[in-house]
Amino acid sequence: TVLDAGGLTVLPAFVDLHCHWRTPGFEYKEDIETGSRAAAAGGYTFVNLMPNTKPVCSSAAQAAMVEQKAAEVGLCGVNQTVSITEDFDGKTIDHLKTLPASVKFITEDGHGVQDNATMARAFAICTQRDITVMSHAEDMEISPWDYRLAEDIETVRNCWLSEYYQTRLHMCHVSTRGAIEAIQMAKLRGAPVTCEVTPHHLWFTNDTCDYRVNPPIRTADDVQALIDAIRSGVVDAIATDHAPHSEEDKLKGMAGMVGSETAFGVCYTKLCKEEGLPLELLSHLMSTRPAEILGLAKGQLEPGYDADFVLADLDTPYIVDKNKLHSKSHNCPFDGAQLYGRVCATVKGGELTYQAEE
Ligand code: DOR
Ligand code: ZN
Ligand code: ZN
Ligand code: ZN
């Protein structure tokens, strides 16, 4: 439900299925405190963190450490996802058999599991242990010939494994027509597959933007396919893939952009103002559905309905200024963009976690 709050609009707080903070190992890009502040400033009260840290998060103990630190900061709830292969070596999955029940999500996170038999074993274990596989099929590091084709094939393969083993599969940052059509087909076949798209893959096209990110910025035809899929209900969620990097690391060619603080404005401007989609649909994509996918709505990780909400100004245009972000990193290709949909305040569990300055 969307209520009117004296010119501002009240929305359920946002839940981010896909976020990179950098603890442990890369705190110079983001730490738990700055990541929490950025999330709160973007209207988020819960984020799901990826395991591409140093060391790679392949144990429940390391995940618990990150979740504990986030709880101490107290601005944003956290689930720390664990890696599918130990150390992202693409092969060793023995740690999956001994994970405690607290681990609900695992992912290959950009280090694709190329070997079909290894991935099949991982899916079989996840079915038994009630774990959801989050797949980054579209940002493989090693690719034999044509990246785009290889990524679409990996999406199809993982959808087939999900259907065969009835393993819950969440496809991250879906960005090609081929991938979203494969997911639509898998859903029609009854596979327990969900998917997310990112704000940047909806906003940018590769004829005008060459910002380095994985998956890359795609063609206008791909963007159209994603928007059509949002309209027809194939897309479950919008997730940021918030990927902070220092200026030096960007100059070295590292992929990714910060996204927590611009997600709502980008999506409201693109989807609601330009494409005419209802705000209720955007709220579904940024709050309700991601909370369901994470199990928050059922109270599995944290109660989902304890006064977590956002006050947003939908009417006053504003310009994104990367130097005003709360994230430790400022790798933001939205810098200078004019947006509608500004987060004015965030409330988590009845407490104010963010209030805009002016
Ligand atoms: O561009 C990206 N950067 N894509 C990913 O999936 C990972 C991320 C990162 O960790 O920097
Ligand atoms: Zn990646
Ligand atoms: Zn990824
Ligand atoms: Zn990512």
- Mean residue pLDDT: 94
Order of helices and strands: EEEHEHEEEHEHEHEHHEHHHEEEEE
Provide the spatial order of strands within the biggest beta sheet. Answer: 6-7-8-9-10-11
Radius of gyration: 19 Å
Query: Helicity, in percent?
Result: 25-40%
Number of strands: 16
- Bound ligands, named by name, code or SMILES: (4S)-2,6-dioxohexahydropyrimidine-4-carboxylic acid, zinc ion
Biggest sheet details: 6 strands, parallel
Look at the helices and sheets and give the structural class.
alpha/beta
Distance between the termini: 27 Å
Give the DSSP E fraction (strand runs of 2 or more residues).
15-25%
Form type: globular
Uncertain segments: none
SS field, number of helical segments: 10
